[in-house]
Amino acid sequence: MDRKNKVFIATSLDGYIADKNGGIDWLHSIPNPDNNDMGYLKFSNGIDALVMGRTTFETVISFDVPWPYTKPVFVLSNKLKEIPKSHKDKAFLVKGTLIEILEQIHGRGYDRLYIDGGTTIRNFLKEDLIDEMVLTTIPILLGGGSSLFTELPNEQKYELIETKTYLNQIIQNHYKRKR
User: Fold this and answer.
1) 100 by DSSP, 3-state: which?
2) pLDDT tens, position by position, for the chain (179 residues)?
3) Measured between alpha carbons, how far is residue 101 from residues 6, 7, 81, 83, 124 in Å?
4) Are 129 and 113 in contact (CB under 8 A)?
5) What is the rounded distance in angstroms from the CA atom of residue 176 to the CA atom of residue 157?
6) How far is residue 127's CA from residue 154's CA, in Å, rounded to a whole number?
7) C-alpha–C-alpha distance, residues 136 and 106, integer Å
8) What span, in angstroms and rounded, lies between the C-alpha atoms of 47 and 6?
9) What gap in Å lies between CA 121 and CA 7, rounded to an integer?
10) 74: burial class by Cβ within 10 Å (0-12, 13-18, 19+)?
């Protein structure tokens, strides 16, 4: 079985995924007139479902756009009691340890997972549960905010699989966990 937990996320040059106020407008600081998805569709075609934290889920549903996902979304939360009615068939609340949550999701037939949201990614990394990361670097220094990476219990080595440049300024690196 090809079980993989993958990350696809953008950071600033100084490693932040949100600015000091939690904002993400800086993600659009480089003009993208052709709306290049920078590999997102290809990445999305290689996953079965998404796993995200409550904060990311609440941020996504606050956008004034239609639900952006075509695959099931599993929301990790200890605070959320239920998924809002507007998203009941699109998102599913899961609880437990990360291993228990993965067992629940795998038990539903979803093996290739997109892990999204800062806290969720950091928690998966702490448990050494990330197999691949696609990190897109936007050429901006935020000087603070929400960092993608924090202290880990052990060193983790990754192998660079591919590097791409988008819009002549944005660098995207694809890494695979060396085990």
Assistant:
1) helix
2) 689 999 999 999 999 999 999 999 999 999 999 999 999 999 999 999 999 999 999 999 988 889 999 999 999 998 889 999 989 889 999 999 999 999 999 999 999 999 999 999 999 999 999 999 999 999 999 999 999 999 999 999 999 999 999 999 999 999 999 99
3) 15, 17, 16, 16, 11
4) no
5) 9
6) 9
7) 28
8) 8
9) 7
10) buried
**Tell me, what amino acid is at 9?**
I
Residue that is written with structure tokens 């197999």 in the block: 131
Residue with tokens 């605070």: 79
57-89, pLDDT tens digit by residue? 999 998 888 999 999 999 999 888 999 998 988
Q: Which two tokens stand for residue 64?
A: 């004034």
Q: Which residue has the tokens 């953008």?
A: 10
Q: In terms of pTM, does the model score above 0.90? A: yes
Residue 152, amino acid: L
- The pair of three-digit structure tokens given for residue 142, joined into one six-digit string: 């935020």
In a 13 Å sphere around the CA of 76, the CA atoms on its Cβ side amount to: 22
User: 79 is written with which tokens?
Assistant: 């605070």
Angstrom distance (rounded) from CA 49 to CA 7 = 12
- For residue 102, give the amino acid letter: L
* Phi, psi dihedrals of residue 44, rounded to the nearest 5°: -60, -35
